[in-house]
Amino acid sequence: MTVRVGVIGVGVMGAEHARLLTREVAGSEVSAVFDIDADRAAEVAASCDARVLDDPMVLIKDGDVDCVIIASSDATHEHFVLAAVAAGKPVLCEKPLAPETEACGRIMAAEAAAGRQLVGVGFMRRFDPGYLDLRAQARSEDLGALLMLHCVHRNESAVGVPSSVLITGSAVHELDIARWLLADEPESVTVHTPRATSRGGGTQDPMLLVLRTVAGALVDIEVFVNAGYGYEVRCELVAEGGTVLLDTPAETVRRAGNTVGRAVGHDWRGRFGDAYRRELQQWVDALRTGGPSPLASAWDGYVATATAQAAVRSLETGSTQPVVLVDKPGFYR
Ligand SMILES: NC(=O)c1ccc[n+]([C@@H]2O[C@H](COP(=O)([O-])OP(=O)(O)OC[C@H]3O[C@@H](n4cnc5c(N)ncnc54)[C@H](O)[C@@H]3O)[C@@H](O)[C@H]2O)c1
Fold first, then answer.
1. Residues 126-158, buried b or exposed e (16+ Cβ, 10 A)?
2. pLDDT recorded at residue 321
């Protein structure tokens, strides 16, 4: 059985999903595409031999669409996820599940009412070999209690991106991976702001988030989206028995002219290409075999967004904010 995927939103990320499904993921094909930019939709559809549909709701209900990927802009996610759940179709929604916690709550309620897990969130770092190794080491007895996590998230250039989106759109990856690595929940968050780079177009960039967890660990997250030199994500775990660093992977390390260097890519597609491929392959495999979803759940999407929103409040007020979560619905236990 070939899993036929409909993709809504085929900008950078949606086109990459379509490419991977067509060329690198076994057992899948892209059967339909929708984007409000009709030319873009036609271009991506042609590259994967898919149909272009002119209505996203028609795409979701289409008989040749088994499941849906949503990679349109953040504010549109809720509407499309709810439509996919109403149609009973599995959906991989790019992060964030929705920028507001209330929207995530509505998605969880709809999924629970549907009675089966249909919604997954594109927190692809959970499929990255480096993060998987870090997580395995975090569970090893010799490291002992986990004390701190230092995270760095840098983009080459994102001029004019609103400061809140640095949190809801970029730091949200670290907010998810921190609880996944530490097996711990967020308790409070404080955002610190140094002087801003002159290259950000007037936005507060960079910033430093400090998250305290329920078990008492501290997570610091540098977000710097106009770092200039490339896309880089790093993470270091500090535990009682030692530290583990997830550094920038490199095929080669060059030594010449009195410098030692490794290449840094322009964006996330290089660094996390393997993670996106594994995420899609494991999702497609689960859909083919009827196995449980390997993706981050709507609950995970909700916690990440609730933490991000608390961080936005901290940015606005300058004070530490509690992360207040609803009780975990029984459906997600
Ligand atoms: N997992 C990751 O690492 C990762 C990386 C980048 C982006 N993302 C997420 O993926 C999504 C897309 O990001 P991007 O970088 O590809 O952005 P993009 O701007 O390149 O693409 C967004 C596309 O959505 C389309 N669109 C906007 N509104 C729409 C609507 N109502 N219906 C259908 N199409 C619509 C736009 O025309 C555009 O083609 C965002 O939610 C973003 O946060 C995730």
1. bbbebbeebbebbeeeebeebbebbbbbbbbbb
2. 98
Which pLDDT score, from 0 to 100, does residue 179 have? Answer: 98
Handedness of CA 283, 284, 287, 291 (dihedral sign): negative
Ligand 1 atom 20 nearest Cα: 11
Nearest atom of ligand 1 to the alpha carbon of 70 = 11
Q: Is 155 in the pocket of ligand 1 (CB under 6 A)?
A: no
User: From the CB of 316, is ligand 1 less than 6 Å away?
Assistant: no
Q: What is the pLDDT of residue 333?
A: 86
pTM (two decimals)? 0.97
Q: Does 71 contact ligand 1 (Cβ within 6 A)?
A: yes
Distance CA 235, CA 180 (A): 13
9 within ligand 1 shell (Cβ under 6 A): yes
- pLDDT-flagged residues of the chain (< 50): none
DSSP annotation string for 135-192: HHHHTSGGG-SEEEEEEEEE-S--TT--HHHIIIIIIHHHHHHHHHHHT--EEEEEEE
For residues 52 and 41, is the Cβ–Cβ distance under 8 A?
Answer: yes
d(CA 217, CA 215): 6
